[in-house]
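Protocol check, entry for the methods section draft. Step 1: assemble the input record (protein sequence plus ligand SMILES). Step 2: submit for complex structure prediction. Step 3: store the structure tokens unaltered in the notebook. Ligand used here: flavin mononucleotide. Step 1 record:
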Amino acid sequence: MTESGSHHLLIVWHSKTGNTEQLKDAVLEGARHEEITDVAIRCLHTSEAGPDDLRWAHGILLGTPEDFGYMSGQMKDFFDRSYYEVEGELDPLPCALFISCGNDGRGAVREIRRIVQGYPFNEVQDPVIIRGEITDEALERCTELGMALAAGLEAGIY
Ligand SMILES: Cc1cc2nc3c(=O)[nH]c(=O)nc-3n(C[C@H](O)[C@H](O)[C@H](O)COP(=O)(O)O)c2cc1C
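Step 3, stored output:
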């Protein structure tokens, strides 16, 4: 999905059983807040996202479940398919993470951080880690995260 706007926000997400997808929907809702008018959004499943999307982006949100103390295999695949392709090309991209997990989430955050510092992406918001059930409060946190990234890009804060 591409909309018009001079600031470009990329959302890359993966979900196996739908929880991270719900978080993604909330992030997207926040990023599309009616008062944010000059931000174009590309919201892509990991299987659709690649190096050209990173070249397009001015900021990035990454959403994944935690699987075996790591990011999902598909999120890792996105990194595998794009890291060297954009090496040396990107200005540091402001970044934030949203994670769905059973009871931990720290492993996914830690390992994503290890990878993204190389692109480089700069984490500009604390990660949102949602443990267990997706509650209204969880969705609200994700909406706020999406809004924060989009508003920050538009305002030139990031
Ligand atoms: C293969 C597999 C491995 C998992 N490993 C972890 C884990 O290491 N830590 C954790 O907190 N949750 C773990 N979970 C739970 C998922 O992170 C959790 O169910 C999450 O909400 C799934 O998100 P999704 O619906 O977007 O796929 C695992 C789930 C699966 C299926």
